Amino acid sequence: YTLEGFADMAKAAGFRVEKVWTDKDRLFSVQYCTRN
């Protein structure tokens, strides 16, 4: 997923992306989400 696509999917499920960590090439990410 793109970072934006993941954020949209999280929002649709009732979550919000609070913080994102990526590798230097932005190929992998860890995303911290909270419930809305």
Structure, explained:
The protein is α+β, with helices and mostly antiparallel strands and about 35 residues long. The protein has one domain (about 5-35). Helix content is about 30%, strand content about 40%. Strands 1-2 form a two-stranded antiparallel ribbon. A hairpin with a 6-residue loop joins β1 and β2. The longest helix is centred in the first third of the chain and has 10 residues, at about 5-10. It is elongated.
Determine the structural class based on helices, strands and strand pairing. Answer: alpha+beta
Distance between the termini: 21 Å
Helix amount, in percent? 25-40%
Q: What's the shape?
A: elongated
Count of all domains: 1
**In terms of per-residue confidence, which ranges show pLDDT below 50 for 5 or more consecutive residues?**
none
- Tell me what portion of residues adopts beta-strand conformation: 35-45%
Please provide the ordered H/E string of secondary-structure elements.
HEE
Number of E-state strands: 2
Q: What Rg, in angstroms, do the CA atoms define?
A: 10 Å
Strand order of the largest sheet: 1-2
Outline the biggest β-sheet: 2 strands, antiparallel
Q: State mean pLDDT (0 to 100 scale).
A: 98
**Number of helices in the DSSP assignment:** 1
